[in-house]
Amino acid sequence: MSGGHYGSGGRYLSGLVVAVLLVAATGVDAVQPLGVLRITVVVTGGDQRATPVPRYALLVSDNPASAPPRRILTSAEGAIEVRLAPGNYTVESDRALAFEGQAYVWTLMVDVVAGRDTVLALTGSNAAVEAATADAVPLVEATVASPAPASSRAAAVTIWTPLTRTTGTVIGTNGLVVTGHHASFSGLPAAVQLTAASAIKVAAAVLVADAARNVAILWIDPATAALVEPAPPGCGEVCDLVAIAETKMKGMAPPAATRLPVEPATGFTAAVLNDAMRGPAGRQPPYQMPATDFDISLITPLQLYAAQNRRAPIDFKNWSDYVSEIPPVLLVRVTPKLAEGFWTKVARGAAQTQGIAVPPIMRPKAGFSHLRAYCGETEVTPIHPFKLEQRLSATETIYEGLYVFDPGAFPPSCGSIKLVVYSEKDPDKADSRTVEPKVVQQIWQDFAPLRDRP
Q1: Over the stretch 207-249, which tens digit does the pLDDT of each residue have?
Q2: Rounded distance, CA 85 to CA 155, Å?
C-alpha cells in the first residue's frame, strides 16, 4: 500500500462540501451512543523489545463504505482512541511501516459496539510483512535517543505548531526542550505546554532542527521550564546539537513568558452529547459565513459529534486525530473558495468552438495565511492557530485555516464578534466579517451544557 490513498492524493474538500456533509450528518433522527475503538501499534525487533509506533497514519472506514476513509495518527505512545458509530470497520495502514529492514502493512476488520470499548492491537503477528521499500514510512522513536534517559515524567511536554503536535523533554534549567520530530518546525511558530502543569503553555523558539537525525531543540522561558523537574543531566548522542543551541541562545532574548490559552479543563460527557443530539442543537448545521476568497465555518462540539454519530466524519486532514477527540472548543475553519482562472476559461471556450466539451477546471482562489478574531474591539488569542494541508498535486500544497478558540472568549456581551481573514496571495489585505448576533447566541447556547457542569 505505497502512498496514502486518501489525504495525500490531492482530494480537495471545499467548505461547501464540509457544510453539506455536516448537514446530511445531522439530518437523521436515530441517535445511538458511540463506541470507542482503542488502537495500539507495536512492533518487536530482533532484540525482542516491543517498540510502540508513534505518529503512524491509519485509515478507518465503515463497511459498507458511506464516506471516504478517516485518517488518524497514533500518539507518541503508539496508541489512539476513536469514537465511532456502532458497526463494522476496516482499519488499515495509510502507508507501509519500515522497521529493521522489513515493511509492515495492516488491514484488519473490527466490530464496534454502542457504548462499549473495543481494543485492537496491531502487531507484527497480524501484519503483512515483506522487504522494506523506499516508499515505506520509517519508524521514528517517540523520544530522542538518549538526550537523557528521561526517567522523570515531569519533564515531558507537548509541542504545538500550526501543522502538528508532538512530545518533547525539558533537558535543563535554561529552558531547552528536545524532541525527536524536527520536520514540523521549519519556519513555523511553536508553543510548549507542560504535561505536569497542563494549564501552562508558552511560546517557544526553534534553535536547531537537524534533518539527518530528526531532532529539534527548542527554547522556552527558563522560569517556566523551572516549574517542572528536568530530565537527568547529560545529552547523549545530541550533545553537539545542544552546544549549538546554547551558542545561539547567547545572542537572543529569552522567549516570552506570557501564558498562552489552553483547552478548557473539562469536556462534554458522552451522556451530555447524546442528550443534546436528541434536541435541535444536535441537528444544527455549521454556522456559515462567506468571505471574498474563503468560506468560513464555525463548528461546535455538538456538530462534530453529530457527524461522527451519523457515520459521516469530516476530513480535517493533518488535524483529524485532534478533532476526533471532540475537544470542548469552538473551531473556525477557513476554506479557500474554488474558481476557474481567466486563461483556463478562455482555453475551454476555444475548445468548445472545436466541438470539444471540457468541464470547468476549478482551483482554489487563494491559500489561507492567518486569522484574527475580536470580541467587540478586543482581540482574542486562539488556543491553537492550526493549518490544514491540502495537496493539490505531488508538488503543490495549499492551506486551510483551523483556528481553535475557548468558547468562553465569545460571550453575547461582546456586542459583536469580528473575524478578519488574510490570504497568502495578499497577506496585508484584511477581509473582515462580522458574525450575526443570533449566531453568537446559538454558539453560546451550544456550550451551555459545558458551563452548567459542576
Answers
A1: 998 877 778 899 999 999 998 888 765 666 788 889 999 999 9
A2: 37
Q: Considering the chain, what is the average pLDDT of its residues?
A: 81
Q: For residue 421, count other CB atoms closer than 10 A to its CB.
A: 24
For residue range 116-149, what is the model confidence (pLDDT) as tens digits? 899 999 999 999 999 888 778 877 543 333 343 4
The packing angle between helices 301-309 and 270-277, to 10°, is: 80
Quickly state the pLDDT bin for 344 (edges 50, 70, 90).
low
Distance of CA 63 to the CA centre of its chain: 25
Of 6, 3, 120, 2, which is closest to residue 390 (Cα–Cα)? Answer: 6
- Using CB atoms within 10 Å of the CB of residue 79, give its burial: 0 to 12 exposed, 13 to 18 middle, 19+ buried: middle
Q: Rounded distance, CA 143 to CA 159, Å?
A: 13
Q: Is the pLDDT of residue 418 over 80?
A: yes
**Which residues are bridge partners to 369 per DSSP?**
none
Q: What is the rounded distance in angstroms from the CA atom of residue 121 to the CA atom of residue 158?
A: 25
Query: Are the CB atoms for 400 and 333 separated by under 8 Å?
Result: yes
In single-letter form, the type of residue at position 168 comes to G
Nearest to 121 by CA among 65, 25, 218, 53: 53
